[in-house]
Write a structure and sequence with these properties.
Layout (H helix, E strand, L loop, with lengths): L28 H16 L4 H11 L5 H13 L4 H8 L7 H11 L2 H57 L8 H14 L1 H21 L5 H9 L3 H22 L4 H8 L6 H15 L16 H13 L2 H58 L1
Helix pairs in contact: 1-2, 1-6, 2-3, 3-4, 4-5, 5-6, 6-7, 6-10, 6-14, 7-14, 9-10, 10-11, 10-14, 11-12, 13-14
Length: 372
């Protein structure tokens, strides 16, 4: 599947990137990408590996990279292989780093593989960032709406209620006003306020934990969300395709490439489809065979993987697929942001308007009685 690979297949360990400890610090892909690109430039200029690493060790900052480079430099200077040093000291590195570096060392084309790696990490971050950006605005707007309503109910509504009480006039409250004032009375209770604050804290903690704690059921539900689900799917497939193409092109075996590329997929339902691809390849079948069983895999992805298998140009097909999906993510992100912003703004305005109207209705009744 990777006939034109610049580096031969390397003997891969199932844990090629090291065994990350529970407290291992995950290195930012952008820092790793910068390091790989700079190291490739120095190696292409004819600078020996140890000297190149020492140069980068003095200039590399941020994200724990300087410490990593210093430890890797010490191992390489002592006669160790670069990829082995990365595996030993870099449990926080992305999973594809060690296999690509090891394959490049075997072929004598380490700088070429480092460039592939840097491009892949940059692409992965770009796609991931675009999908995330499209979901940030709805969350911020929702939190702002909740905060605004709580302020009105806890601060503004009691003021209007005191004005009505001081008027000494009997007023029949509209049902909308009764709802708002009853909610305000509930929030005036210290116990209820504690519950509300605790609920907000738990919500924030839940959102934060959601970034690290994943659930197949929740990930599957995400794919069911109209439009959003499709955007998540093609974003994940873009990252997966780019990573798999880079691994195949540099000579990493197909099965190991699938396992490593699976690490770039942030959805457990899509991961399950990749696992089925791995099982098919392991049993001597085709990579594309299980994809028909997963409705969320885009038809274009299935077709291009089939063409790649039949033509022997899988890496090229995956690269093309990744570019197509990346462009689609860009378009979908623009559309969803353009749609969500005005819709949520209107919803926010309508909710606040009804709450304010509910409070002003009794005040208007007082003014009307005063003029009679």
């Amino acid at each position: 599947m990777a006939r034109n690979a610049p580096a031969p297949a390397a003997e891969q360990d199932a844990n090629a990137s090291g065994s990350p400890s529970l407290f291992a610090r995950k290195l930012a892909p952008r820092h790793v990408s910068t390091f790989c690109r700079q190291l490739a430039v120095l190696l292409d200029a004819g600078i020996p590996m140890v000297r190149a690493l020492k140069i980068l060790g003095r200039r590399t900052t941020g994200g724990g990279m300087q410490s990593l480079v210093e430890r890797v430099t010490a191992d390489v200077e002592a006669g160790g292989a670069f990829s082995t040093a990365l595996q030993t000291h870099g449990p926080g590195l992305p999973s594809i780093v060690v296999p690509l570096c090891r394959a490049g060392e075997k072929a004598g084309e380490l700088s070429t593989n480092l460039r592939y790696l840097a491009d892949n990490l940059d692409h992965d971050e770009a796609v991931r960032g675009k999908v995330t950006e499209a979901l940030i605005f709805p969350v911020i707007t929702l939190l702002f709406t909740i905060g605004t309503l709580l302020f009105i109910l806890m601060v503004v509504a009691p003021l209007f209620k005191s004005i009505i009480a001081e008027s000494n006039k009997e007023i029949e409250l509209h049902w909308l006003s009764r709802i708002v004032f009853n909610l305000s009375d509930m929030l005036a209770s210290p116990m209820v306020r504690v519950v509300v604050v605790a609920g907000l804290i738990l919500t924030i903690v839940g959102l934060w934990r959601g970034a690290s704690m994943r659930s197949y059921f929740l990930d599957f539900l995400k794919l069911r969300i109209p439009y959003i689900g499709k955007m998540i799917t093609i974003g994940a497939m873009a990252r997966f395709g780019k990573t798999l193409a880079a691994l195949l092109r540099t000579g990493v075996p197909v099965l190991e490439s699938l396992r490593l590329a699976r690490g770039t997929v942030d959805n457990m339902a899509i991961e399950a489809a990749v696992v089925d691809m791995e099982k098919s390849v392991e049993n001597g079948g085709r990579m594309s065979a299980p994809l028909e069983q997963h409705w969320f895999i885009p038809e274009l992805a299935r077709d291009m993987i089939v063409i790649g298998e039949e033509s022997g140009s899988m890496a090229e097909m995956l690269d093309n697929l990744s570019e197509v999906f990346r462009a689609q993510v860009d378009q979908m992100q623009g559309r969803i942001v353009a749609l969500i912003q005005p819709v949520l703004t209107i919803i926010l305005g309508v909710v606040v308007l009804f709450v304010l109207l509910a409070m002003f209705l009794p005040y208007f009744s007082i003014l009307m009685q005063g003029t009679m």
